[in-house]
Amino acid sequence: MKKAKIAIIACVLIAVGLSATALVSSSKGSWRTASRESASIAPKPDDTLEAVIQVYGASTWGWRGIFAIHTWISTKRAGDDSYTVYEVIGWRLRNGESVVRIEKDLPDRYWYGERPELLVEHVGEGAERIIDKIEVAARSYPWPGEYKAFPGPNSNTFTAWIAKQVPELDLELPFSAIGSGYVN
Question: What element of type H or E holds 133?
């Protein structure tokens, strides 16, 4: 009798899990066509002469987005006309590249259809000083050739690494930033 109850509970949990996965996967379409446009959160570089630092998080693609986010850091130095984005992208390993991506880009892109949330923002002279430290920390990330969605190292490990190296960033990642604890 006890084994039958356990089997029924297991079947129900599996059915719920499969249904949730199917629902999430089918409702979002393909990641290839998902929005990567600006969410219009960051100030336009032409509209602000000050230095800007912003840390973003957005739900991950597919079923993982039910409980996990992807995080990244965007910076703009005073007077610059573009932002630099610092993040880890796991699939870069397939091409033999470092997972660390540091490039001029839109600071607040949708993460494959998911609107980003602003986690931290610094603007002004203090931000300018912090940007140099972010750059050094990003380039000294200890796991540029590794990526594991769980338990890490992953995109959240990278953001947590920078936050640990640059305490002035004053960043506390949410629980959904799975992999951020890998740094400890």
Answer: helix 125-139
What are the Cα distances from residue 4, in Å, to 11, 35, 177?
10, 46, 37
- Look up residue 102 and give its two tokens: 């540091």
The token pair that represents 148 in the structure block: 């594991």
Hey, is 38 helix, strand or coil?
strand
Q: What is this structure's pTM?
A: 0.83
Q: What is the pLDDT of residues 133-165, one digit of tens each?
A: 999 999 999 999 999 999 999 999 999 999 999
Domain of residue 15 covers 2-27
Q: Are residues 48 and 12 in the same domain?
A: no
Q: What are phi and psi of 96, to 5 degrees?
A: 75, 15
Structure tokens at 110: 């949708």
